[in-house]
Amino acid sequence: KVEVGDAITVFFLHGASFSSQNWVDIKTLDHVANWGYRSVAIDLPGFGKTKDRLDPSHNADFMAAFVKAMEMKKVVIVSPSMSGGFALPYLFKEPKLSTEKAVGYVPVAPVGTSVFRAQYPDSQLPTLIVYGTEDKMAESVRADLSLLPKHQMAPIDGAGHACYLNNPEAFHKLLFQFLKSLSS
């Protein structure tokens, strides 16, 4: 049995029109658990089944409090679309501390990437930039996130903005390889 403190925890966020249920529906949480990692998915404040909204200026504090409350030590944050407004300030407001907050980051066309362009070069956080090749928004996001020194691009051919939902199998393969690279 893997103890909570020993394993990587994959922390799944979601886009504005979605919820944590999406990760259940496409069996991502099951896959991650079967691969030997802990998986956590939440409905962000004001979305899914969580009714109370937060002022966006508190999004990074929310992330820090949740990670602490769930006793997540080695965190990989998966952040699609709207959830970039939570993950990006948490990870890159102080970019030199990003590797203390997470061991990896998987942005999936997150919003708000341009806000932290100046900070990205100072982060050493391993990042897997996942995007659908048919997502028109992805080009500027890729340009911003490519400023992260330890990034790799992970296109999903023929997929759109919610590429993990368009092609879960391809997404799972990319995620598995990334997690494996962080574990070795």
TrEMBL record:
Domain AB hydrolase-1 span(s) in chain numbering: 10-110
Q: Does the keyword Cytoplasm apply?
A: yes
The signal sequence is none
Q: Which GO terms describe its cellular component?
A: cytoplasm
Per its UniProt entry, which superkingdom is the organism in? Eukaryota
Pfam families in the cross-refs: Abhydrolase_6
Instruction: Supply the alphabetized keyword list.
Output: Cytoplasm
Cellular location of this protein? Cytoplasm
Q: In terms of one coarse class, where is the protein primarily found? A: cytoplasm
Note the SUPFAM superfamilies from the entry. Answer: alpha/beta-Hydrolases
Is the Cytoplasm keyword given for this protein?
Answer: yes
Which family, according to the similarity comment? Belongs to the AB hydrolase superfamily. ABHD14 family.
What is the protein name for this chain?
AB hydrolase-1 domain-containing protein
State the organism named in the record.
Answer: Elysia chlorotica (Eastern emerald elysia)
